């Protein structure tokens, strides 16, 4: 077993006690997986399961997350409220039985919330109107709920309902004479009206777009969880990504999104090199496509996805925009994806993927921000997972496993 490196232990010590972190983390972000106690708890749960830290620290952060009412229903989402707390609690529960009752209570609430969301989404699908990103994405929507469900409630009605929905999400929409992908959003990437996207856009990202849904469908299929037209839906998303694939001297790239103008022209506008991160860009999409290829038994596509990821990890032009260290869109996140992809790659490719990780983490720095997606806790988890297989499913919420 690989011991956690100094960076990980330093972060864990710094974040041992909720009372020592900025008060904003506990007050404004108390229920937030990305920025607050639930995400920080994941680091201490991973350490405790590996017998590299005390359960007391994990419990302190979970207690901080529940120091007040826990939000559910329409005001919650996979990264906020009951679902965010459930991910942390469910990560601990297999190893700490005292958390199982809380997990079961949260699971019942999640099931009710998911079925209510599905009912609203089905009405929208029946009307043939475009979805808001928050309906389906990994951070706020049904894809995010789905990844929790396939890990913790695989045989539930809610799991099947989400997979049914995700398959139907790939059906073509028609508007103003255009054939649109079923995940076409009427607003901008922020989910709000945006003058740059007067006719909406198709979001390709893992965090906020169809890349996350592709990963969910692939991970579900690998677990034997499928729905009608499941593989057809996977192939529909892959065909879309193939349509917009771009080649550079450094490797294969995919645009973050497609506008209506680009859709009508049949080509994406050339743009400056964008970072190959988890949330948007080549790294997250390469992992999603590798998972899809594994689900389909498509070795050629798997090879292509793995080589795109290798290029993203080594091409100076692609790495140049990667200026921070975070899990979401920084170097530690890229290292984590490389490590996860290596576990599923053939031996030679796996060796090459693992070989790039030391260089990726060598320049990682730890910010003052303590949280999971952009902060110290997520960086520590990602760096350690680059060195050895995680002991828990902490990264299920980012659809890398």
Automatic annotation (TrEMBL):
Q: Which domain of life is it from?
A: Bacteria
Which keywords fit this entry according to its UniProt record?
Metal-binding, Zinc
SUPFAM superfamilies recorded for this chain?
LanC-like (SSF158745)
- BP terms from Gene Ontology: peptide modification
Q: Which GO terms describe its molecular function?
A: metal ion binding
Name the InterPro entries for this protein: LanC, LANC-like
Binding residues for Zn(2+): 279, 328-329
Please verify whether the record's keywords include Metal-binding: yes
User: In the UniProt record, does the keyword Metal-binding occur?
Assistant: yes
Q: What is this protein called?
A: Lanthionine synthetase C family protein
Source species: Streptomyces tabacisoli
